[in-house]
Design brief:
single chain, alpha+beta, Alpha-D-Glucose-1,6-Bisphosphate, Chain A, domain 4, 5 helices, 7 strands
Amino acid sequence: MTGMFHTAVVGVLPLLALGCQNLQPAMELSPVTPIVASPVKHPNPVFIPLGENDYGPVFEKALEVLGDYGFEIADANRYDGRIETTPRISPGIGLFLKSGSPDVYERLLSTFQTYRHRVTVQIQPAEQGGYFIEFIVRKELEDLARPIRSTIGGAVFRAEHTVERQTEVIDPTIYDPAWFYRGRDEGLEQELIRRYRGR
């Protein structure tokens, strides 16, 4: 009797943890792209054949897709047709349920090094009607002089000063010396396009 009770409790606990949340976008798993395969399937920018009065839904769906992937919006200008996101740390292989790049090689890089993604979406009206939507995903690698919690040699030789004074304030959205550009993540671009076309 107690064995059946424990089995029932273990079966019901995940349902109670989920509650009444709408997890449809979060539960959709990204397709996995093998290391040797090319992720390019859809053209970028992608053409969306809609009318002139459909610009609002086109813009809102782009915001929804970015929200599904956990990106926070830094700047969204509806008149310019441009959306910029704040950087988001890319998940590695250990976080395979977290939405990110479907490319196994990119996930492997993010497992052993700290990468982040920054997304730009540009929406341009087409001459024949419709819209061109371009997703640009930039990869940035963290550049540290040494590991953050490294204590080797810290007791004997201290390289840092005890007081840090900053004489100049630099906006981190414009210049961030700890991160440098490492190219574009085409796998994540294709995944965003696939999700956008599905909307």
